[in-house]
C-alpha cells in the first residue's frame, strides 16, 4: 500500500510512519520542512509544502491508496483549513479511506446529552480552541463521501505501546485518563488497514 501522511513530523505521525515502514508500505509525507524528518526517515518520499495549499496536497496524494493525518492545531487554523483541502484532493484522486487523529473533546458527553465533551465539565482543558478546530475537521469529514475514522485519545503522554487499549465509538470509555503515543499510533494504523470503525469518532484510553 502507498499511504499519504499529513502531520508526519509530530509524535503520533512519526510513530505511525515507523509502523507503516516496518510492514513494507510505501509512505509519502507532506512536511513544512524536510530537514525535520529526512535524516530520520531517508527511505520515505517527502513533499515540502503546506497542507492549506492544493498543489502541495495533490502532489502528496498522487498514486496513494489511503490517507493518514495527525495534523494538530498549533494555535492556528491549519487543521480546519487543511482538512477540506485533503478531502477535495482525495475525491479528485478517487481515494476513499482516511484515518485522522482528533481529541477526546469532540466525543459525545456522557453527562449532558447533545453536547461534546469539550462543552462540559468532562473536559479538563480550560481553552476550547483546539477542540473547536478538531470539531470543524470532524464536521468536514462527516459531510464528505469518504470512509473516515477519527481516533480520539485523551491525555497523550509520550511512551511506547502497553496494549490493553480500550475503545468506544463516539464516547470516551468510562474512567479513561490517558493513552501513550505508541498505542495511539498503533490503534490508528490498525484501523486504517482493517476498517472496523468507519464513520465514527473513537475514544481510546487504558
Tell me the β content.
15-25%
Q: How is the CATH topology named? A: Rossmann fold
> What is the ordering of alpha helices and beta strands?
EHEEHEHEHEEHE
Strand order of the largest sheet: 3-2-1-4-5-6-8-7
Rg measurement, Å: 16 Å
Silhouette: globular
Number of E strands: 8
The total tally of domains equals 1
Distance between the termini: 30 Å
Q: In DSSP terms, counting alpha (H) and pi (I) runs of 4 or more, how many helices? A: 5
The CATH architecture name reads 3-Layer(aba) Sandwich
Structural class label: alpha/beta
The first-level CATH class is given as Alpha Beta
Helix content: 25-40%
Biggest sheet character: 8 strands, mixed
Give a written overview of the molecule.
- With 206 residues, this protein is an alpha/beta fold.
- The protein is built from 5 helices and 8 strands, in the order βαββαβαβαββαβ.
- The protein has helices spanning 11-22, 54-61, 78-92, 129-142, 181-194, and strands at 2-6, 26-31, 45-48, 66-69, 97-101, 147-153, 166-169, 200-205.
- The protein has an 8-stranded mixed sheet with strand order 3-2-1-4-5-6-8-7, with helices on both faces.
- The radius of gyration is 16 Å and the shape is globular.
- The model has no long low-confidence stretch (mean pLDDT 96).
Amino acid at each position: 500500500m502507498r499511504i499519504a501522511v499529513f502531520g508526519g513530523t509530530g509524535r503520533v505521525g512519526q510513530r505511525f510512519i515507523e509502523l507503516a515502514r516496518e510492514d513494507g508500505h510505501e509512505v509519502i509525507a507532506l512536511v513544512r520542512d524536510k530537514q525535520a524528518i529526512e535524516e530520520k526517515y531517508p527511505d520515505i518520499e517527502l513533499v515540502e509544502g503546506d497542507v492549506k495549499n492544493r498543489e502541495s496536497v495533490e502532489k502528496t496524494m498522487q498514486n496513494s491508496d489511503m490517507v493518514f493525518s495527525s495534523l494538530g492545531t498549533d494555535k492556528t487554523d491549519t487543521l480546519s483549513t487543511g482538512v477540506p483541502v485533503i478531502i477535495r484532493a482525495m475525491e479528485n484522486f478517487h481515494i476513499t479511506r482516511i484515518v485522522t487523529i482528533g481529541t477526546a473533546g469532540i466525543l459525545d458527553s456522557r453527562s449532558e446529552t447533545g453536547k461534546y465533551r469539550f462543552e462540559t465539565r468532562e473536559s479538563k482543558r480550560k481553552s476550547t480552541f483546539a477542540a473547536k478546530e478538531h470539531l470543524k475537521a470532524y464536521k468536514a469529514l462527516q459531510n464528505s463521501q469518504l470512509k473516515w475514522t477519527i481516533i480520539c485519545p485523551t491525555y497523550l503522554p509520550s511512551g511506547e505501546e502497553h496494549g490493553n487499549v480500550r475503545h468506544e465509538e463516539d464516547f470516551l470509555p468510562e474512567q479513561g485518563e490517558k493513552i501513550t503515543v505508541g498505542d495511539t499510533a498503533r490503534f490508528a494504523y490498525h484501523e486504517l488497514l482493517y476498517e472496523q470503525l468507519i464513520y465514527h469518532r473513537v475514544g481510546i484510553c487504558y
